[in-house]
Model the fold of this input.
Amino acid sequence: MSQSTLDDDELFGEAASEMREDVEASLDEARAVLPVADDIWNVEADNTLGVLNALKGALDVDDAEEHLRDAKKWYTMGERADAFEDADDLEADIAALETLLEDVETAREQVGELTSTVPQLRGTLEEFAAEDADEETDDAEADDDAEAEAEA
Done:
């Protein structure tokens, strides 16, 4: 085996190790910026809309998605180069994190829908209550008028 081949093999081995480290580092960074469970569960606000907005903010995973993308990029490059001896753990970690981020994003979308629905519902309920109050006032006035006519 020539010196050139040995050097190439060593360089490829180093590059493969570095690639694996890059994937693992990106996965660690993605995990580090995931929402904290207590931040999602314990939300403080003055009203329902405030709670929903705080929850929506807590469910933001844009940074984690960016780190996952980097992990997938380096993983794909390493796989195509056949640089990893055993990458099943990396593949499983990427898949698990991807599923978690999809779940969080789905929850965020649902909270976003509620954020727009709850104020509309409140407005409709207030209008309904006002109409009902107006009808009761009209009925009371009609009863008063009827009593006044009966007395006259």
